[in-house]
């Protein structure tokens, strides 16, 4: 189930507000104006865009918008419900045979789970199923990395271009040493590009990259559980043994909560959505 990840916009907003409060507390609206310099913005933004165009292919850059959206959404998959699904399917497979699962497989929304069970029903060897599905995980990680690396590189380039802008400002300042009254303001403007580059890198690009990396790790973890569950069902493992095996992947607090006899949400098996 896809939901909005509110922590990403909240984090960006909180960081921006803290910076604004620090500026306003020292100089009011006049202080805020002194932190705005259009040429410095052009140097940092233009420099980052230019570096990205040199580093990546156009097709990869075009994906930046879709990749950016991923950081603001999350795919929720109820882990204990996932375990219960495999237990139910395992119980039915032991009683009626693996072919009896064919009708239930079509009702599962998760394409990865459905693909694994179709292979199992077709009689593919467990080792081959595992190799095929792990190859798909590897391909997914590679796709995610190619998207995430856009933000990683932007986070590296932004401070560097900020420093380049500062050096340009210092050169221009040194050319005007005769006017002592202009040195202070010129130095302040020169340093703004470094500020812009550092803020962009540490409040936006690098945190976004880390968020996407965490999402990939979580998705890989869930897919590993799915592989173990499919192999367990195909091999005819006892449902209780399979439950104990898969439950080892679950956080203890989730396990305690879902095993509460008053909580019936744990026993909904077919509500598994694509991660």
Automatic annotation (TrEMBL):
Coiled coil: none annotated. Its main location: membrane. One of its GO terms (biological process) is bacterial-type flagellum-dependent swarming motility. GO terms for cellular component: plasma membrane. It comes from the Bacteria. The keyword Phosphoprotein does not apply. It is found in: Cell membrane. It is a multi-pass membrane protein. PROSITE patterns: MOTA. Keywords: Cell membrane, Membrane, Transmembrane, Transmembrane helix, Transport. InterPro entries: Flag_MotA_CS, MotA-like, MotA_ExbB_proton_chnl. Residues 106-220 form the MotA/TolQ/ExbB proton channel domain. The chain crosses the membrane at residues 7-26, 38-56, 154-174, 186-206. Belongs to the MotA family. NCBIfam families: PRK06926.1 (NF005383). PANTHER family: CHEMOTAXIS PROTEIN MOTA, MOTILITY PROTEIN A. This is Motility protein A.
């Amino acid at each position: 189930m896809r939901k909005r990840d509110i922590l990403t916009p909240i984090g960006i907003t909180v960081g921006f507000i803290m910076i604004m409060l620090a500026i306003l507390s020292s100089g009011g609206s006049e202080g805020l104006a002194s932190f705005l310099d259009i040429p410095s913005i052009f140097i940092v933004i233009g420099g980052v865009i230019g570096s990205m165009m040199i580093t990546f292919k156009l097709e990869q850059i075009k994906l930046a918008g879709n990749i950016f959206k991923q950081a603001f959404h999350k795919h929720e998959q109820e882990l204990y419900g996932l375990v219960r699904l495999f237990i139910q399917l395992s119980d039915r497979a032991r009683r009626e045979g693996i072919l009896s699962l064919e009708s239930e497989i079509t009702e599962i929304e998760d394409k990865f789970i459905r693909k694994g069970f179709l292979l199992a029903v077709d009689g593919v060897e467990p080792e081959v199923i595992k190799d095929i599905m792990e190859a798909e995980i590897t391909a997914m990680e590679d796709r995610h990395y190619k998207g995430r690396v856009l933000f990683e590189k932007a986070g590296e380039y932004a401070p560097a271009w900020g420093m380049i802008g500062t050096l340009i400002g210092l050169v221009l300042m040194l050319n005007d040493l005769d006017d002592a009254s202009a040195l202070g303001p010129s130095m302040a403007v020169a340093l703004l590009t470094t500020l812009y580059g550092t803020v962009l890198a540490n409040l936006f690009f690098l945190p976004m990259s880390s968020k996407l990396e965490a999402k990939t790790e979580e998705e890989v973890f869930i897919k590993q559980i799915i592989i173990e569950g499919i192999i367990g069902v195909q091999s005819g493992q006892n449902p209780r043994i399979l439950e104990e095996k898969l439950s080892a992947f679950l956080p203890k607090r989730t396990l305690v909560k879902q095993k509460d006899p008053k909580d019936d949400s744990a026993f909904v098996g077919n509500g598994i959505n694509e991660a």
